[in-house]
Amino acid sequence: MLRRELAAKKIDYKLVDIDVFEDAGRYLASITGGKRSIPTVEYSDGTVAINPSIREVETKLAELEA
Question: What whole-number distance in Å separates Cα of residue 30 and Cα of residue 12?
């Protein structure tokens, strides 16, 4: 659902399939305290949001642009 919302709002993102890229799955677990929760968004400032709403993503992106 988040992917569709990001696309609809023309927000660029990078999709990484953790089932295809094992290193990505390990990295995800390392930044989420061992969880493999998706979607997980890692922002340019290094913060992470697990299963964020589109509103939360937009708010964070606005903060990063300010």
Answer: 24
